[in-house]
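User: Fold this, then the next.

Assistant: Folding the first:
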Amino acid sequence: MFITKKHLDRRTFLRGAFGTAIALPLLDAMVPAATAQSLTAASQRFRFGAIYMPNGVYPGTWHPTKTGKDFEFNRTMKPLEPFREYLTTISKLKAPEGKKDMGGIHMGASAAFLNGRGPVGHNGDFNLIESKKSIDQYIADAIAGDTPLRSLEVGTEDMGTSAGACDGYPCVFFNTISWYDDHSPLPVSVNPQVTFERMFGDPGTPEQRLARLQAKQSMLDSVMHETSRLQKVIGAKDNAILDEYLTNIRRVESQLQKMQARSSVIASAADGPVGVPEDFDEHVTITYDLLHIAFQGDISRVFSFMLGHEGSGRSYAHVGVKEPHHSTSHHKNTPESIEQYARITAYHMVKLGEFLAKLKETPDGDGSLLDSSLIYFGAGMSNGLLHDRHNVPAALIGRANGRLAGNRHIEAKQDQPTSDLLLGMADLLGAEVEHIGIAEGRFNLA
């Protein structure tokens, strides 16, 4: 690495032993002398994230009643109230119907979330792995730039590959919402360790990366000498930013080490289950932390996060819901069951709020990461009891570098396709998309 006291290249890396390379966040030292950050290309860097929640959201607990500004947050959305000035929520949208040739009532909901189409089964051949390029990938075409990872696709559970488990379709349709092109689904990483290695490991097979990771013990320890050199030539503000960034990486690394140790204990038990961390709350937290670091270090500017797959059997006992998520969504209109259903949604808004708070607290140019980001949260259905595609949840959080105003509840035209919103988001971030899904027009977010 070459360092001068006047200017650092934006793609400067801290390099250590075993080929370790850590991308740096945007520092003042990366801005040419006498140039305001607001006038640099870096200040106009966009970031986009799509977050999908399975099994729908009960509309009566989500959508505000008042449109326009200063609306009252409904109960399940209320954890996002601290981000009112960054938030636009949209009602009356309609997601694509779950037709048999579009994935069915459940899998079709998630499969169409980012491309408005889902599976393409020609002449009844449901074994085809074919869909349509998703909006996050169009956006990546426009904003990924020179980032090490064009996009990140993460999740918390895998449907598996069992025959018949995925409504007769290849299970890839259940396990991803992102498509690089019409024939290339992007696999979701449900293991935070794998995501961490993808972000910070060297190229090679998983076995090679794991061997290097074990040899290092701590990735950050191997770059401490290089870090010390850098700290001597940058200012106090940059040092504070660098320290926070490295602390975030250290915290994630520590969490991963704890998970790895726990998994080893589980694996040693005679009949113990082995897999992703058994603590779901910790799993969600560390995944969001990795996405925060990806944005902060400019490792990736685009992500998609599947909080679960459709039909998920996960329970949420930690928030008082012992029944599986899917069966909870089939609430039979009883107040007690609707309350349980609402608790799951509210819990995910708490976790989303924690992520948004980190983005808001992280400097980026003249603002924060939340100022330069557009985060899209939604689901592929509303009322899970009916698998209803009407009035689905759709919330946009972030300012997209001043292009999106917050503190708004927009009521769309009745049953306006969610595909229109996908085009509206693409327009907002400068991605050129002529058509997607079943769009009838382009949603105006101005």
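Now the next one, as you asked:
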Amino acid sequence: MNDIFALEAHEKMSKTIESLHSTLATLRTGRASVAVLDRVEVDYYGEKTPIYQISSISTPEPTQLLIKPYDRNDMKAILAALNASDLGINPINDGTSIRLVFPAPTEERRKELAKSAKKFCEDAKVAVRNIRRDVNNAIKKDDSLSEDEVRRSEESVQKVTDEITKHIDEIAKEKESEIMRV
């Protein structure tokens, strides 16, 4: 019976890690990544639309992104969205496409990014602990379990929690070293 609770906890906690990976991908490291534009939304005929849905995005060079709108009339809206975003990069409009040149971040900026990465990882740990609490509450409410089974189930859920938390720490360390690399 205890495996069911541990599996449920592991499944939910794995989704937290997937979410953490996608969130960390939006942080700028020094190399251009299409993922940094995931949070940029364009006012597309009155609707907020992700930039990747109305344009093709490529990386012609390691420090550059090239955005080609499917419709040239969307250039102004895309430029406005990029200028309003928190990227801190001035888009270069060459008439048919938009270039984003990513300079190497300063040491101060890298420290800020590393701090943001740590915060995202801490938020993921909080989510994991909340999942553990919810699963443990479900274990305690299950009347079909004896006291020993409840204790074993809680221990197995704690093992899963420790494993996932350790994995989050490894992800944080890896991302921080990636950010701090010049």
